[in-house]
Amino acid sequence: MNMEGSSLLVNINVLFFAKSRELAKTSRAEFTVESVIKAGNLLNQLIDSFNLNTISNNLIIAHNENYIENLDTEIHLHKGDEIAVIPPISGG
Amino acid sequence: MDHIKLTRNKIDINLIQQLTIDKSCGACSIFVGATRDSFEGKKVISLEYEAYENMALKEMGKICSELRVQWPDVKHIAIYHRLGNVPVTEESIVIAVSAPHRKAALESVSFAIDKLKSSVPIWKKEIYENDLIGEWKANMECPWPPFSETSSRTFEFSSCKIEHQIDNISDNKLVQIKVNDSELNRRVKCFLKRKRDEINLYNIIDFRQQTTDPALLESIVGKDSCARTQSFLVKQQQSKGHLKVCRATYNSGPQVRPNYSFQLNKLMTRQNDQYEAAKCKVLRNARLQNIEDYMHITPDDDDNIYNRIKNIENRILMLESTSPEYKYNIKFETDLKNIGKRNSKKEIYLSDRLNEFILDIKRQYEQ
Hints:
The complex is a heterodimer.
Chain A: H1 3-7, E1 9-16, H2 18-24, E2 28-34, E3 36-38, H3 39-49, E4 60-63, E5 66-67, E6 74-76, E7 82-86
Chain B: E1 2-7, H1 13-20, E2 27-34, E3 38-39, E4 42-51, H2 53-70, E5 76-82, E6 84-86, E7 91-99, H3 102-119, E8 122-128, E9 131-136, H4 148-151, H5 181-207, H6 214-224, E10 229-235, E11 243-250, H7 260-268, H8 272-294, H9 305-322, H10 326-330, H11 332-339, H12 344-366
Helix pairs in contact in B: 2-3, 8-9, 11-12
Family (chain B): Belongs to the MoaE family. MOCS2B subfamily.
Enzyme class (chain B): transferase
GO molecular function (chain B): molybdopterin synthase activity
């Protein structure tokens, strides 16, 4: 594990939509997290912090408007980055 | 040219068609998605769309690029998606593509709507007639797992694709069901409900003694069992099929009655009589103590109530001889009567004597 990366904390913006927005009771929040983190780990932290347990298996995240397809992906976060919690989509 | 828009107003289909008109194009294909008024028999009264707007526009742009790669002839593309409240029957999505020939136009529109449903971050909430909280929907095309509550209602055909159809069934153990989707969904739902009931039944049975006779089981479970667990089972993410109980609620039983804990505590108190007696003793001691305080007596033996009463009597006799008026202020007659029945005879005798005695003194004093 990269000790240098894991010790650095950054502030990011988290966006919530649809059901996750209702459960989190907010559409936007600030969050402090390690700057280098696995997507799955970040998602779990968000689930715990924002009351998303009931839909925990149904969420993915987007980093700066790009889907993170694989939860094992390591993301490099910078201050002010945008992470969106994306429940199953239903457009069209 | 690509026309991409998220709008809160009614979509004008004519306008969109005009956007795609081009002298070189002999075909314009338009897909219009509209809102339905019912879902599984529930009446939809309104729909609400929300989007991660910046990302949605970006994803819609990606769809346009993909279209142009796959069908290089495509001339103009317009993708309009409505947001906010959309009344039933109105358009929620319009996709129009123009091309020199119809094949590219038709195929690309079809591809575009499929792609949009699986990749553009837009969400739809249906609000039903008798359930104003509403429900967030999930597209079948959505590549990640939809809400379990939705998946329990609709069968996920994508999870087990039918590889080959059997036309002539020779094996009489196999049955081919030929019904439409809604009928199949209904049957799957019924099956899930029956399994749910079965699990509930076995939960109750497990909770009780081991009985195997089905007739006996029926009678036990029907009335006499106190087990009423409603468990919710979920498949664990990385499990190979084992279920874990994530929540259990107990809808009936003594614990739901009002004042349950109070009643329980009352029942758990070891001896009611002892408690009453102790209460009585405390009360009696308190009254006695008040009298003692009032008369400045320090009890030397707290436990012996007779000694304490005797002390009071002595004090009264002493007071009688010094300041008899005092007696009227503290009203010993009624107070001492309540201290204990065993002493009542003495008290009455004492008070009567006191009364007479005092009246005598008064009379003498007046004379």
